[in-house]
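This week, study the protein below.
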Amino acid sequence: MLCSEIVRPFYSAAIWVSATTVFGAVVGCGSDTRPPLQGAADGSSDAGSGGTGGLDIDPDPCAAPPPPEAAGFCGNEVFQVLTEKPSVYFVLDGSGSMREAFEGTGSSKLLSAKYALRDLLIEIGHRIRYGAAVFPDDSAGSNACAVGTQVFPVTEGDLPLCAEDEYGPVLGRFLDSIGFRQAEGGSPISSTLGALTPTLLALRPRPAVILITDGAPNCNPSARCDADACIPNLERQSFDGGVCGEDLDCCDPELLGPGAEGNCIDDNQSERVVQELAELGVRTYVVGMPGSETYAGVLDGLATAGGTARDSGETSYYSVRDAADLVGSLASIGSEVSLDCSINLAGAPPDPKLMNVYFDNDPVDFDAENGWSSAGDTLIELNGDACNVLLSGGVTQLQVVAGCPTIIK
């Protein structure tokens, strides 16, 4: 989306998943407070190995799960849970309109997006790897349509910690990478995603892209359009004493000169790039901030092309109206791309009848309908309510503990 300025010819100024690692069996605090973040950024653990595929419990509750007698735990062997940590790549709109106030927050839309990402990554950052790009590139001087650039490379999130800090060093660096950004310029979405394609395709397995924007893509001079597909016209922006869409067509190159087509909605090329990414295994989720309502059809098209069209709701993309909507939408996407109800273990427990599954410090019943069940020597399935609880994003860690009789519903 443009800022209040028109793009002149001379631009005068507008979750899939990765490598095997430890998911659970990392930390367990006696406190009821949410564990902040610590530990090796590569996901390594200092806990020694022991038993058949298990890990000896470290007596330090902030370095490993609680000892067997703590918080109702039973058993002396915590099994390594194998999962492919997903990569999530945020593509954030930094255009001029993102400096507008986000209703009910007292902050700009850009700053509100930063806060929502912070809250999301505090909850799920330890389960994923994440990176980010912002468009347009604000280092390009007066070029309002400069192709967006990566501001944070994909990095494994901080491990949960037992400290009072709210988040760890990885999330801190991530927030710094977008924290000093000034909202200005246009919305070169197709060119930005095109430029990021080699970076996205280099990740194994392929990442999920989360595009956060408050309007339609533009900045494509080849996207010629009629007056009714011209963004300044649709928004009735002021220009040289007139009103776009009433007094003049602000996408007419005969009035504004060559390059005025950059004000046109760039829907076709943007959909094409998003669809090509989807065909290569990179799905794109679309989050529409307030201000994007006029372009709901365009954002629906992007979500459909990206392979993430929603089955419920009024729009195929995630349409947000306030801060709670934004946080909720990101949490929903984050859970979808970061969690799986099929749990692989590094080794088979010595006795499957002496094994329990815990969500944080709470045991999960052995129950084929709404608890956990065994699908093989090293595979556990979470069913019904248990799966829903995990996918809700409220579980900080999942642990498999051997040594005591299985809790059966």
In short: The first helix runs from residue 109 to 124. The longest strand covers residues 149-156. Confidence is low (pLDDT under 50) at residues 1-5, 8-66. The domain at 87-220+266-338 is CATH 3.40.50.410 (Rossmann fold).
